[in-house]
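Hello forum,

I keep getting stuck at the same step: I have a sequence, I want structure tokens, and every attempt I make locally crashes halfway through. Rather than fight my setup again tonight, could one of you with a working pipeline run this one for me? It's a single chain of 211 residues.
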Amino acid sequence: MTGSGEYDTDVLLEKAGRGDRAARDQLLMRHRGRLRQMVAFRLDRRLAARVDASDVVQEALADADQKLSEYIQRRPLPFYPWLRQLAWDRLVDLHRRHVLAQKRSVTREERQALPLTDESAVQLADRLLADGASPIGQLLRDELHDRVHRVLAFLPDRDREILALRHLEQLSTREMAAVLGITEGAVKTRHLRALQRFRELMTEERGEDES
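Reply #2:
Ran it on my machine without issues. Output:
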């Protein structure tokens, strides 16, 4: 949420800081849909049968309610990235306890990673195609969709992640900077490089299909 949404959030934070319970409740509820979408994108299919994305969000919001007063005083991150981090931590913990617990050895990267589900990768392929400049026929679109899905699997993790943050979660540049812990300028540079690598791989993939 950007623009007037950020202004509204700042107003609600000020009111909540003065003890306005209604403002506090509104703060916690207004991003529920975005949080649920983020959780659904990352919820491992091995967990999905036992864990509902809405439950993860509800727990994260309960955690946020307990920590909101401290957040208002310190404001370490913009509000939505702060909420997202609480939900992310819940997901990482669930993933570690229920998925990685079965593995004999787990790297630090695996403990922190929450890769996109296959379904989410398909959605990302759809979004990247939707962002294209020119309309295409359905048959060609289906062929491109499969090609995009294959290319995404070959992209480096950090490129795929920044494309997911922008095109799936639809975070603003400011929110992405907070999530990744880098500057807004670095976000723009990293996103452009990820798109460039994506296009290069698409060109290579097309060449292989035609050879």
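The CA atoms of residues 100 and 106 lie 7 Å apart. If your local run keeps crashing, start a new thread with the error log.
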